[in-house]
From TrEMBL:
Organism: Ligilactobacillus acidipiscis DSM 15836
Domain Transposase IS66 central: 1-188
Domain of life: Bacteria
InterPro entries (UniProt xref): Transposase-related (IPR052344), Transposase_IS66_central (IPR004291)
Stated name of the protein: Transposase IS66
């Protein structure tokens, strides 16, 4: 905050740090209502992407030390949708309870990694993420050179998907059946 105060002082607005903190706290209460609405809208989507990652928070509630791990969960709609949404949730841990709370009332398809918490989320179906698969094969190349062959196939698949990014979902679906399906079969044989 002190950097922002310095910038604003140069522009002629003088305020104290405590005033700025009060404004942020008050504004966050108003914004919280909007984030709850966004979360509720995202849970109505037929398809969501989900993940979580470690974050370090300096002053944590729950009497956690500043060096303790916290989790930032994210759920989002696909980037190909005209109306996209992303929701970030600060959760104290990576437990099934946290995942169930975050995805409560979601009845669609969830694309996520293979972490066991997602199996406890009550939704229509879960699908895997090829980026996570890619990472595992990439890590495997350090121990076994044979992992490079499936990586090359995944690279081809990602390259094609990038080329098709601006196409309609129907066009992408058609191309996936024609060009990605054979690559996926080839990948399964090598993988």
């Amino acid at each position: 905050m002190y950097r922002q105060l310095k910038d604003w002082r140069r522009l002629g607005w003088v305020s104290s740090e405590s005033t700025l903190f009060r404004l942020v706290i008050h504004g966050s209460k108003i914004v919280q209502l909007l984030t709850e609405l966004l979360h509720a809208e995202l849970l109505k989507a037929p398809y969501l992407q989900g993940d979580e990652t470690v974050v370090q928070v300096l002053r944590e509630p729950h009497n956690k030390k500043a060096t303790a791990e916290s989790r930032m969960w994210v759920l989002r709609t696909p980037q190909t949708l005209q109306r996209q949404g992303i929701y970030y949730a600060d959760k104290p841990d990576r437990t099934a309870r946290s995942g169930q709370e975050l995805y409560a009332e979601f009845v669609g398809v969830l694309r996520c990694d293979g972490y066991s918490v997602y199996a406890s989320v009550d939704c229509r179906d879960r699908v895997g993420c090829l980026a996570h698969v890619y990472r595992k094969f990439f890590e495997a190349t350090k121990r076994d050179h044979r992992a490079k062959r499936p990586l090359k196939i995944l690279d081809q698949m990602f390259h094609l998907e990038k080329q098709w990014q601006t196409l309609s979902s129907n066009e992408r679906k058609k191309l996936r059946k024609q060009r990605l399906a054979p690559l996926l079969k080839k990948f399964v044989v090598f993988g």
